[in-house]
Fold this sequence. Notes:
Mean pLDDT: 85
Number of helices: 2
Number of strands: 0
Number of domains: 1
Oligomer: single chain
Largest sheet: none
Order of helices and strands: HH
Structural class: mainly alpha
Amino acid sequence: MNTEIKTEKKRSYELPLEVMLHDAKMQERKGRAELMASRLEVLAWKISRDELSFKEASELLRQEAEKFENEARGLH
């Protein structure tokens, strides 16, 4: 019975931490999604403004993908 009380206390301390970590992760994901949407909007704008061909547009997308890959490597 003593063990059950300790477990309940431990869980009551863990819960707020878990909630805080979950909230932080969700905020991070939201921020990344907003950034990604913004970057895609800029690419679409550039493609339209400059009337890029499909080859030019695909190269622009490849360059953007390379930026993402480099950013991802920098995070690890």
